[in-house]
Design brief:
86 residues; mainly alpha; globular
């Protein structure tokens, strides 16, 4: 099971793993079932330590930006894609 929301989003909401899951339509339950728990923990850690959280936050807040590829800034993009399409 994924940790509660405080771990999934940063206090100032620049970028957010929870926000990415919602926007990309990735089911958190499916993420937990299809990815090993260590991989999910690593994804959360990458998100919390992400140097591009400001870019992520702008992307999440702006529907026009969402047309652009999040792969350019998101270190978890491949995991999200694998779960979403797998």
């Amino acid at each position: 099971m994924l940790p509660s929301r405080p771990i999934l989003s940063k206090p100032d909401y620049r970028g957010s793993m929870g926000g990415m899951l919602m926007v990309l339509n990735v089911d958190p339950g499916k993420l937990c079932k299809s990815a090993p728990s260590e991989e999910v923990r690593q994804a959360i850690t990458r998100c919390l330590a992400c140097p591009t959280d400001d870019v992520c936050g702008r992307w999440l807040r702006d529907p026009e930006r969402r047309k652009s590829a999040y792969h350019a800034f998101c270190p978890n993009a491949d995991l999200f894609d694998r779960v979403r399409h797998g």
